[in-house]
Amino acid sequence: MDTKATTVDLFMRRIARYPLLAAEEERELARRWRDERDEEAIDKLVGSHLRLVVKIARGSLGYGLPLADLIAEGSVGLMQAAEKFDPEMGNRFSTYATWWIRAAIGQYVMHNAHIVRVGTTAAQKKLFFNLRALKAKHGDLGADGVTAEVAKKIATQLGVSLADVYSMDGRIGRSDQSLNAPLGADGSTTFEDSLVDESQDPEGYALEADEMSRRRAMIPGALSRLNPRERDILTQRHLTEDKPTLETLSEKYGVSRERIRQIEAAAMKKFRQAMLHTAN
């Protein structure tokens, strides 16, 4: 018996034990975990959303990775979501958890998909994750590779070169199969089912998280380009949760509110230029 299939079967049986939760039940369980570290509460909260993990994992089956591995990574994302979820914000946990699950699975796909060594730029990663869906959108599902017309459209849409499109299509195409070919041991899912819907792109969230991490790493260097007063005003006005008023800062520095506004605007301009310079 296939080990991966057995793992998935066990996981699906575990899911069946957990009922769906009403909104107030979610919030109560989240509070119990946050305030009391109640293990039973976190088990119920996470367990009731394992169905969401499976749904999102199935959406990434087209990259040649085992469903069991995708589910495992998505479950890690679900646990991270449960740890950070604030029940007082009024959002359903599933809405919040979706981002974390998609990000975890997307990161795993980027680092482990065997069909291509993902490029270093965000545009190349986006091409990797969206090429199949865009070809399908343009009706280009032939076995002979992407057509010139469709390749031009994809290159323009994603901001990559034609050479990148042809190269990526060639690599992905080496593992292409019939759209009706079954995926998984039970044969209940076909390759066509796994095509990524452009409006529901889990990898896009991972790319966004990747880009945000890169930008956060650039912030200290950009701030170092500012003088101490500019750095303090910009940090307090834009990089802290409790943003002070212009009046508060004008009293601190002994200048008018308008002068604080001018300093803030000039500092922001210098900061953006420094970020752009670092990025390039």
Give a structural overview.
It is a single chain. With 280 residues, the chain is mostly helical. It has a domain at 224-279: Arc Repressor Mutant, subunit A, CATH 1.10.10. 66% of the residues lie in helices and 1% in strands. The chain is built from 13 helices and two strands; from the N terminus they run H-H-H-H-H-H-H-H-H-E-E-H-H-H-H. It has helices at 3-15, 23-36, 39-47, 50-58, 67-84, 93-112, 122-137, 148-158, 162-173, 202-223, 228-238, 246-253, 257-279, and strands at 182-183, 189-190. It has a two-stranded antiparallel sheet with strand order 1-2. Helix 6 packs across helix 10 and helix 7 packs across helix 9 (162-173). The longest helix is centred in the C-terminal third of the chain and has 23 residues, at 257-279. The radius of gyration is 24 Å and the shape is flat. The N and C termini lie far apart (52 Å). Mean pLDDT is 76; it is low at 1-5, 114-119, 174-180 and 191-202.
